[in-house]
Amino acid sequence: MDSARFTVAYWCVLVAALLPYAAVYLAKSPGFGKRRREGGFDNAEPRAWLARLDGWQARAVAAQQNSFEALPFFIGAVVIAHQLGAPQTRLDILALVFVTLRIIYIAMYVAGLPTIRSAVWAIAFAANIGILFIGYR
């Protein structure tokens, strides 16, 4: 009987699940250590505080939201690929490509580079479709 193992692709799922939190941490970080009346992070009403952000901080919040939106498809694609017996090395590489592109995507979003950001999003989406169909026979 084969023993189950935690593949690189599964580790990529974990990293992808943590990316939204990294993005919102960026948005909140300038408010850490400040009192609320001084513009510090308001943990009593975090969504209202985040909604008032602008500039790169607002873009970091948007990157967080998009990262959450991309997550279910990625998780599903990785699970389906494993269930279909996809070639593990190719699956792992595509998962690494997806996560790397999502990190670049967040950076481009925060930096305010919409054209590059959209191109990176499209390539990451294509990689995710590749993951979904890699085990198809």
How would you characterize the overall build of this protein?
It is built from five helices and no strands. The protein starts with 7 loop residues before the first helix and ends with a helix. It has one domain (8-24, 54-133). The mean pLDDT is 93. With 137 residues, the chain is mainly α.
Main features:
single chain; 137 residues; mainly alpha; 5 helices; 73% helix; elongated
Brief summary:
By secondary structure, the chain is mainly α.
Fraction of helical residues: over 70%
Mean pLDDT: 93
Order of helices and strands: HHHHH
Structural Rg = 18 Å
Q: Let me know the largest β-sheet.
A: none
- Structural domains: how many: 1
The proportion of strand residues reads under 5%
Class based on secondary structure composition and strand pairing: mainly alpha
How many β strands by DSSP? 0
Uncertain spans: none
Distance between the termini: 24 Å
Shape: elongated
Number of helices: 5
SSE arrangement:
Layout: H1 8-28, H2 46-51, H3 55-83, H4 88-111, H5 114-133
